[in-house]
Amino acid sequence: MPGSSTVLVTGAAGFIGSHTCVELLEHGQEIVLVDNYSNSSPEAVERIAKVAGRPPAAVYEADLLDRRALGKVFEAHSFDAVIHFAAKKAVGESVEQPVDYYDTNVGGTTALLRAMHDHGVRRLVFSSSCSIYGDATKVPLTESDPARPTNPYATSKWLCEQVLSDVCRRLPELSVLALRYFNPVGAHPSGLLGEVPHGVPDNVMPYIAQVAAGRLGRLKIFGDDYPTPDGTGVRDYIHVMDVAEGHRVALDHLDDERGMRVLNLGTGRGTSVRQLLAAFADVCGAPIPYEITGRRPGDVAELVADPTAVARAWGWATTRDLTAMVEDAWRFQQINPSGYGN
Ligand code: NAD
Ligand code: WQD
């Protein structure tokens, strides 16, 4: 990890960004944070510094779509690389508000590229998503499997990958890594950082955590008639600390080759909703109430990563198992019953 270089982190106060900032600070990396707090709060930045034991070099409240504000950030620092987390990420909301999703996710990425280009910054790690595989016909999924995005959120990520790939073809000095995360869950083991959904969680892990804590009545299992071993949806849950570590390692490999590279970030292990519920019940010591309801529109049966490419490229693999994911999510829920606001 280069001690003297500085990395810009966009969307730094969010779920994955905040954990990655801690990982980078703890490994001696200087970082500059940008967030507009549209889906996070400045409290996350306070906690990043507390957990890491030292503050970032600078923190900016700025919207990526505000090109003047973004330009000022690039003028004030000399960046060695950028990690670009900032985006809108709720699949259901993206169906209702497609323009907002293309504006923020694609427009935010091109605004960032513009600023990087203007200031000679040529290395980027981009947050992509397993959702671009859509209704996959086979698992595990390799990076060369076809993209079939089925909603504006997933399409926005796919479009970003296309833009980055095309720009890289034409500007050979660029190095871009697009990391397709599967289902990041869990929290920092300190219990100080975690996932803070606004309102009722869309995603299964924070939903189960709130049921276990008595804040929600019961989990609705969205369908038990999928062609999976127990009929419930299967996903590749990955500990957010493994995702964070993956970004630290990615920075060390940006220069392995010029151009655009796409890599899955997953464990290669599938877990069904029923298995996740059972693991949570084990950890919290009580059964979790649930009911079976109909399928959620747009859901797919199974999404599991083939993590071979990242292992080959970096000699790296995830290390945290499902129990660690659940234990850390549960600890965070207990310590922060109302998120960062309590
Ligand atoms: P998050 O919402 O917690 O974090 C995103 C951060 O970006 C937030 O702090 C938000 O305030 C900020 N932001 C949004 N729009 C902005 C803008 N225009 N300008 C500046 N800041 C802005 O989401 P996350 O779970 O940490 O996800 C991080 C990235 O990873 C996103 O790009 C997301 O699409 C991608 N991703 C997430 C998952 C997941 O399940 N969490 C899976 C695959 C990919
Ligand atoms: C997981 C499983 C549900 C909630 C989402 C995004 C994807 C990516 C990761 C950003 C499924 C079931 C869920 C509930 C349930 N994010 N479920 N009851 O949909 O796999 O992926 O996060 O890039 O783009 O779509 O995650 O946690 O919502 O669902 O039964 O209340 O849990 O059907 O099988 P998903 P999830």
UniProtKB/TrEMBL annotation:
InterPro entries: Epimerase_deHydtase (IPR001509), KR_dom (IPR057326), NAD(P)-bd_dom_sf (IPR036291), UDP_G4E (IPR005886). Keywords: Carbohydrate metabolism, Galactose metabolism, Isomerase, NAD. One of its GO terms (molecular function) is UDP-glucose 4-epimerase activity. Pathway: Carbohydrate metabolism; galactose metabolism. SMART domains: PKS_KR (SM00822). It catalyses: UDP-alpha-D-glucose = UDP-alpha-D-galactose. It is an enzyme of class 5 (isomerase). Its EC number is 5.1.3.2. One of its GO terms (cellular component) is cytosol. The keyword RNA-binding does not apply. Coiled coil: none annotated. One of its GO terms (biological process) is galactose metabolic process. Pfam families: Epimerase. The keyword Isomerase applies. Its cofactor is NAD(+). Residues 5-166 form the Ketoreductase domain. Belongs to the NAD(P)-dependent epimerase/dehydratase family. Homodimer. This is UDP-glucose 4-epimerase. It comes from Streptomyces finlayi. The gene is galE.
